[in-house]
Amino acid sequence: xxxxxxxxxxxxxxxxxxxxxxxxxxxxxxxxxxxxxxxxxxxxxxxxxxxxxxxxxxxxxxxxxxxxxxxxxxxxxxxxxxxxxxxxxxxxxxxxxxxxxxxxxxxxxxxxxxxxxxxxxxxxxxxxxxxxxxxxxxxxxxxx
Length: 144
Ligand SMILES: [Zn+2]
What we know:
The protein is mostly helical. It has helices at 3-60, 69-93, 134-143; strands at residues 95-97, 104-106. It is elongated and about 105 Å long.
């Protein structure tokens, strides 16, 4: 084999390898797309199962000695925890923030329970549950 033939052969081999690599890359790209489609179908299926579960739960939750009683209990407990957390969130959102120290205080509070800053004017209702710290007494006397 002379040099020209050798390089010709080499060139063809490289070209073949390049084509094979391009095909491989296409296959990999398509594999990624197919995986995404599979995941999408799985999500849709999970949502459908969830709908079925909700319907089944609504229909059977009241039955005594149901074979899925344990699952029903877990759902009830979860719903209870959500209600409690929502109640807690409502309380938190019903709070005001002290402009002095940033502490979260009740909107009804007359004074910040952390730094003692006066939060409302004297014409507002008294925050009787707030302990009377010396600094607060001083402020009160000045206001009088
Ligand atoms: Zn404060």
